């Protein structure tokens, strides 16, 4: 009897203590166990940031049900975020700490390291991963680990200022069809240069993309032993084609995005990421503050006259920093939400990206687009998806350093050669060749 | 009849012999504990221990608010000071440019080339301003335009506006400047990137309080700087407050406005609140009667990354300790606020810190649950402890009493009073025994002889014993002959032997002893 009473007393006491005490953190997601994830993203600087909108929608719907809140603490661009993330991962003074969620290229994720980043393939089932476009997933693997989950992929497209082009076409007989190949594009650019009294027709955001894709389209590779192959004659020929256009003034090369020059009326066409569609305003503003409507027509990225039709596959993806179980569960929940179904379609169609799941490509054809410019872009992307093959940059150590060095080097070299051309110091072919060797010298450092 | 008498009668009637010692002890112990518990509870209530959660929350919010206010005042004071310095540098720079080129300010109108040159010249003070000030951008706008009147409606103003493009901490070390407004020649000249929502000039119609700032402009800039409400920056998704300072020439001519931008993202990063509270929100905004306008202000969250993202108005209700804020979507917060003046030409701002009301309620529930748990644990412990204690206390007493009862004096109980009692009783027993022995030794012969008589009975033979028992039953010798069917001589023979063995000389003497036996048996029966 005594023992029974003692046991009863102890049991009731333990039960009372348990009921009171155990409110500690558990990994189960829910409104009573809220979790906040910080995020750095690169989808900003535009009137309406689609990612900000998606995050707000998530916070008020699916996230709210699971007690998950995403707090955006940085909005930059894909090149700036690389250095910021590396600095944060290394714990450099003044860099802040690595956010719970961030968007970056695979090389950035590789530099940060799998010990600090969640490996998505450990959290997704094989069945779930099979829903994604295989090449998109493949791009996000670093040493076999899926560190970067595809959220939205972009390609390159040719954006044309319809208003100016149609004025020009009416006078000269130029046509949009001429712009399908690089040869046709540069010939049209020369015509425009003459018609406009010396204005540039086109600008390319990333000349290395032009060179490496065209080299690949003609059956070669711009890279050898993880460096640019300046010995490759095809590589040389592609560079010289672009260089001639730049030196002659038909192609603008500067440290800026083509979208900006489109908005100042300094160019008529630009080759850039399909995501550039987000950045166009609806007016061109000239230096004397006069304005005219800017109507964008998007066309498939030009291709080589011979060779395969190829276009770039690019785009940052989603990474999650390793953290406690609750944060990882929350990160996985958001990753699934933003890459699947309606949420993914909603995001990509507002931002000029391709969806990342196979089933979404069919649905996109019936989607309601914001305006005709967006519709033309998705028609162009649909054409490229059907007719082109996508080019994946090589998995080369320091690829983005090479990209950046090539970008800066090409601006400097072509500026110099253009100035020499204007001073009458050589012909186009000679200066184009000279610029090639100048680039080789720069890139060898 | 009194209750106590009634109780006694009732107990006697029912055969109830009263409470045991253990029950009485248990009862009084519980009464004592109940009394202590009441005093304790009363004391706790008197000193407000049950309102600990309210007091602690109030203290926490007040502390956070005072730190927030302190930091904010210093920061915005610096913004104003640096804005004034920027204004003076721009004013002198512009004058120098105009004088050098033989121009008046009014000559800039429609003169795109001159404006571009002026902007290139005035970029440096702006850049320096951004790099040395805690802000997300800097700007100046001149009351002129590159366009002619027909192409540039009156409210399009020329200027430069730069934003920091890579905010991810309060102030990034390597700032990337994006040109948001101004001639692209400036960006190209200095090798700067353009903001994706770049435009050439600033629309003064959409610039907050533009006319009011110019109207209040005076040579003493300390009296006329102005902090705007948070507004949506044209063409972007961002809200920002602008610390504005007029640009005034030496002759009092107002050239325009300059200042610094505090964007919502910058404010969120710069004012993340450290502390133990995981869901703290800070808000700098305007109060319009009973409503705090979240849209007119800027918000910060907690250092752990928590951020609410308030929008719309927060209606306010005051209690004795807190403000209770309710958003349009029904979310409630508990907070404190204070009025703060950040610029001479402004109404006062309201600075508030708050936590979700459900966090506060959860703390209260936990506190109540803990208090109830403690209370129940106390009750349980009291009851269980009293039961155990009373049992343990009473056990040796009962054991001692049992010993006393049985006169079986075993090990001492180690309870002084009981051991004393047992000792006393033992002494009494010893004394009584001794006395009895003494009395027995000096006892009158009959008692000694009686004892011998009793012992001799055992020596009788069965036949003799039969005859003797009949004498005890009161039969005569004649009756015994008839009962046993023996002759009188046989009976006489038995009598002789009986007298001899029992040491009596006659039947009369025998009957005296027999009567004594009967009396002793009767007394023993009565005792039982």
Description:
Chain A has 445 residues and is α/β, with parallel strands linked by helices. Chain A has 2 domains: 35-153 and 315-364, D-Maltodextrin-Binding Protein, domain 2 (3-Layer(aba) Sandwich); 156-312 and 389-444, D-Maltodextrin-Binding Protein, domain 2 (3-Layer(aba) Sandwich). Helices cover 48% and strands 15% of the residues of chain A. Chain A is built from 18 helices and 18 strands. Chain A has helices at residues 2-21, 50-60, 62-66, 78-90, 106-112, 126-129, 134-139, 162-172, 182-195, 207-217, 233-248, 258-263, 325-339, 341-351, 358-364, 372-387, 399-422, 428-444; strands at 35-41, 68-75, 101-104, 141-142, 145-146, 149-150, 156-161, 202-204, 223-224, 227-228, 251-252, 269-273, 283-285, 291-293, 296-300, 310-312, 317-320, 389-391. A 5-stranded mixed β-sheet of chain A has the order 2-1-3-17-6. A 5-stranded mixed β-sheet of chain A has the order 11-8-12-7-15. A two-stranded antiparallel ribbon of chain A has the order 4-5. In chain A, strand 13 and strand 14 (291-293) form a beta hairpin. In chain A, helix 10 (207-217) crosses helix 11 (233-248) and helix 14 packs across helix 15. The longest helix of chain A has 24 residues, at 399-422. Chain A is elongated and about 110 Å long. The mean pLDDT of chain A is 88. Chain B is an alpha+beta fold. Among the domains of chain B are: 81-264, no CATH class; 443-527, Orthogonal Bundle (Arc Repressor Mutant, subunit A). In chain B, strands 1, 2, 3, 4, 5, 6, 7, 8 and 9 form a 9-stranded mixed β-sheet that branches. In chain B, strands 10-11-12-13-14-15 form a 6-stranded antiparallel β-barrel. In chain B, strand 3 (177-181), helix 5 and strand 4 (193-199) form a beta-alpha-beta unit. In chain B, helix 8 packs parallel to helix 9. The longest helix of chain B is centred in the last third of the chain and has 50 residues, at 357-406. The relative contact order of chain B is 0.08. Classes of the chains: A alpha/beta (445), B alpha+beta (528). At the A-B interface, helix 1, strand 1, helix 2, strand 2 and helix 4 of A face helix 5, strand 4, helix 7 and helix 8 of B.
